[in-house]
Predict the structure of Butyrophilin subfamily 1 member A1-like protein.
Amino acid sequence: MSGEMTWRHFAPILCFVLCLSQSDEKFTVIGPAHPVQGFAGSEVVLDCKCSVGLPLPKVEVRWFRSSFAIPVHLFQDGHTNASKQDKTYRGRTELFTEEFINGNMSLKLKDVQWSDRGEYTCYIHDKQLYDEATIELQVQILGSQPWIHMAGYQGDGIKLVCESDGWSSQPEVSWEDGKQHKLTAQTTTGNSANGLIMMQTSIIATESSGNMFSCLFIDSLTKKKTEGKIQIADYF
């Protein structure tokens, strides 16, 4: 009887300990709520946080895109496994392994390329449990140096055409004369084979506007400017 009473007394405590132990093993993986912005040629960190810290020897951290079997980066059995890594990412990825214990499973991507844009999956596996989060990377590229050329006479002036290509997003475009007065322009856009944007803008330059002209392209996100200039020697 006393043995039965002892079991009944300790059963709730034992259940609590077992349930607590099981809940401690569970975890969730969280990525940023909004797309991550990266710039071509620079480094970017794709944030991935685990709700609990995990020890190095047993945890698997797998970053991949379309193929689970060909990862962007794989940490397994206590070290990085480069043999299975996507060749296009070799030498360009890094994990913060010293931060695993704090739940930081983020990926550093170096020398960002236009082809890196898109979705990444951060997959964490520990013992029999796993979870994952999806992170979107958007890549920004500044277009080429604007090139201005004369396209012939039109009316009482000369048509000036300014071109720039290789933009990841449509830039703001403007023309100025030598006194920094804004000029009315006609602008068209197109797309190259790799999906980047080509821009062409033109004005009619007249003697009343002087002989110095510049066209400016301003990146919509960074507000960085790239400028082309031309000087007209003589109108007629």
About this structure: The chain has two domains: 26-140, 147-231.
